[in-house]
Amino acid sequence: MIGSLGWQELLIILVILALLFGAGRVSSLGGALGKGIREFRKESTAKDDVVNADNEADEEKENS
């Protein structure tokens, strides 16, 4: 859904948000969103590492 929005639509949405909440509040919301995305990616990568380690351990058990 977001992929179908052009830059003009996104600009209009940002202007409306700035008018409603103020520029300072919008920037703090953006920072919080960025922090949340970074945390999600970090945890997702950590989970993938654990799954890969478990798969390698299972393969070693099967081969021995």
Care to describe what's here?
- By secondary structure, the protein is mainly alpha-helical.
- It has a domain at 24-64.
- It has two helices and no strands.
- The chain has helices at 7-21, 23-63.
- The radius of gyration is 21 Å and the shape is elongated.
- The model has no long low-confidence stretch (mean pLDDT 81).
Short description:
The chain has helices at residues 7-21, 23-63.
Strand content: under 5%
What is the average per-residue confidence, as pLDDT, rounded to a whole number? 81
Q: Rounded to an integer, what's the Rg over CA atoms?
A: 21 Å
What's the N-to-C terminus distance? 49 Å
Number of strands: 0
| Order of secondary-structure elements | HH
Q: Which runs of at least 5 residues are low in confidence (pLDDT < 50)?
A: none
Shape: elongated
Number of helices: 2
Main beta sheet: none
Subunit arrangement of the protein: single chain
Secondary-structure-based class equals: mainly alpha
The portion of residues assigned to helices is over 70%
List keywords for this structure.
64 residues; mainly alpha; 0% strand; elongated
Compile the SSE list and pairings.
Layout: H1 7-21, H2 23-63
Helix pairs in contact: 1-2
